[in-house]
Amino acid sequence: MGINFHRVHSVDVVNHATDMIVWYRLRWHDPRLVWNASQYGGLTTLQLWVGDGTGAGETSEIWTPDMTLWNQGESMQTSLSSAFASVSSDGTVFWSRPGHLRPTCKFVGLDSFPFDELGCTMEFGSWSFSGLYLRPVKMDAGFSIGGSETAGESFQEFSLERVSCRENVYPPYPGDPENDWPVLLYEVVFQRAWQPYTRGYILLQAFQYNTPPRLGPPPPRLLPSAAPALPLLRFLLLPQALLAAVASDFVIAAKLPAAREMTWFAQFSAFSLAYAAAVLVESCIVIGLYYKTSESLLPSCLRWASRRAAAVGLRRVVSTGTAAAVGLRRVVSTGTGEELDAPTREVSGAGAHAPTEFSRRDANDFRHEAEKDLNTKWQRVACAIDEVARWVVPLSYAVGLACLLAVK
User: Fold this and answer.
1) Are strands 143-145 and 2-12 parallel, antiparallel or unpaired?
2) Do both 166 and 110 map to the same domain?
3) Rg of the chain (C-alpha set)
4) I want to staple 113 with a disulfide (CB 3.0 to 4.6 A). Which of 66, 154, 263, 298 is the partner?
């Protein structure tokens, strides 16, 4: 038995199936087909028809061996074309048929996706006859690749990398100790084109972890009014980067089976997504510090809630009528002299309300010099954190990515 692998038609990783265009060849000896060529005018070769993919077909003229692809997704009787068999005068029969082999594969090597080499094993043997009656052996090496101008692949995701063939014999069943079951195992390896995945997915995620526009004053070529817009770009770019990474995962998931094993790309995607989330958290922290005007690190809503809780507690004490509690309520205040009551608005100008911590205001809209000084301090802290992150995050990401590439 021998197979010429013409080209790879398709590889379906999700459904564990492959489709290959092959020339399937069988050669055997049938003593019933021996004749003396000299008695027939020197006739040494006959072309006899074999229909329906088997010698048992209604139109078949000779017997053919019962050879079957054991892990077939489609029967070879329908996937291979019917063809003539060449019969020699010494009883040698050569039967070659073009068509498709569609095995169901137990893929190996998918854990390295998209840099994987997928291995698929095809098992050929007789389904009805044991080795006592029919024993398949390799025809020469058992396989060949190409041999015509139309063979091979181009502009295709998978290509045929290498093929090997070996003989294997399954031991007899306990109830039939004389009959073993010989088979031929073809191990086919497919090489995936990894370049589209690198261009479309890996590079996209490799660059989305980087910190977007920095904090601080705008470059000289920009107007001063552009300063507040630069930090806001983070809230536009970073969520989009995270969504792009998630969208890439959805696209890749459609190309892979849902399995418990993690592929290389799944590890890379989780690694990149974690860094993108870390950059998003870092950006939220530094932007919050950049516009901060209070001395405490607690958010204004928590500080207001704590003051309200304290005020409610003091009112309950005051309701007891003790003079000490009344004096205590006048003394206790926030760090800026603000009483522990609900926030009130100060009137400035012609009935206009001065901005409170809950009012909308620009970055330079301060109520007093103390807030301005505090904001300057927090801006220095935010810029320092930002500059450190610009070095630490890319370098640590590059080291982690190098480790992932080393073990792929």
Assistant:
1) parallel
2) yes
3) 39
4) 263
